[in-house]
Automatic annotation (TrEMBL):
Residues 51-253 form the JmjC domain. Residues 169-179 have a biased composition (Low complexity). Residues 163-193 are annotated as: Disordered. PROSITE patterns: JMJC. InterPro entries: Cupin_8, JmjC_dom, RmlC-like_jellyroll. SMART domains: JmjC. This is JmjC domain-containing protein.
Length: 287
């Protein structure tokens, strides 16, 4: 469970440096979470709580916390392991089934996933802003040092830069920048808003409705509570098969875009030396 207004987003530290901020992880019961979400105080006076553990939190084999039972296996009685028509379409079972519980204080910043995604709303509504992969060139992407929200001496949430981590070797295929000491930097879209020049689609998904979100599509997600005072959704991730021609086309697109002067918009292909060039010339994600 995370606590953050904009989950996984770019923020500016007091010293002016920009960082990719991850939510604070907190452990609590479902009952406690629901009671916090039902709090009717003004939004600006409350922290945002959001069940967003992902990675198959309903049917996960190994819990996140040692000694705990399987995370949310109590919901297996009510939530199916697969969407049968999608399973038939892709020819395999889902890779993960995720439960999401929150309210309108939580907004997921613009990003894309490498999975075919079936998203179903159980309570409240979700507002998706969608952009096809070709719109990538209109987005301002940079590499940012990662940080995590932590409590300070006043019990306020503040981003703290992550300590040095083991870095991947230069020969590994990674979309993370890996040319300096310290934790790998993360490529992310700087702005919380989509550019006016982009061709976007806005979809409101209400209780009982389902959205198919193709792999690679950009999406920002807002939400509004229902009568229960919370938003509940479940989604299914399915493997996305990348064909050689598609893979080559994507790499070519990125290289051409970068050669055309769009370094601030397009993340270099995985394992590409251009990533190190951008990392060195733009160490803090600044213009």
């Amino acid at each position: 469970m995370g606590s953050c207004r904009w989950a996984d987003s770019v923020r500016t530290l007091p010293n002016g440096r920009k960082t990719f901020v991850k939510a604070l992880d907190a452990k609590m019961t479902i009952k406690d979470l629901v009671s916090r979400l039902g709090n009717r105080k003004p939004k600006e006076d409350r922290e945002a709580y959001y069940l967003q553990s992902q990675d198959g939190n309903i049917y996960r084999d190994t819990p996140h916390y040692s000694g705990d039972p399987e995370d949310l296996n109590m919901f297996q009685e009510y939530i199916k392991r697969d969407v049968e028509w999608m399973k038939g379409a892709v020819g395999r079972e889902s890779e993960a089934v995720n439960l999401w519980i929150g309210d309108s204080r939580s907004t997921t910043s613009l990003h894309h996933d490498p999975f075919e995604n079936i998203y179903h709303v159980l309570a409240g509504s979700k507002i998706f802003t969608l952009l096809p992969p070709i719109e990538t060139a209109h987005l301002k992407q940079r590499f940012y040092a990662p940080s995590t929200l932590q409590r300070d001496e006043n019990n306020d949430l503040v981003p703290v830069l992550d300590p040095a981590l083991a870095r991947p070797s230069s020969s590994s295929s990674s979309s993370f920048s890996s040319s300096r000491d310290g934790p790998p930097k993360i490529p992310w879209v700087a702005s919380k808003q989509t550019p006016k020049s982009s061709r976007k689609i806005r979809v409101t998904l209400k209780e009982g409705e389902t959205l198919y979100l193709p792999a690679g599509w950009w999406h920002r997600v807002e939400q509004e509570e229902g009568d229960e005072g919370l938003v509940v959704a479940v989604n299914y991730w399915y493997h996305h098969e990348i064909h050689p021609a598609q893979y080559a086309h994507e790499r070519l697109f990125r290289r051409v875009a970068i050669a055309s002067g769009l370094k601030e918009s397009v993340v270099p292909p995985m394992g590409d030396e251009v990533a190190d060039e951008i990392y060195e010339s733009d160490p803090d994600g600044e213009e």
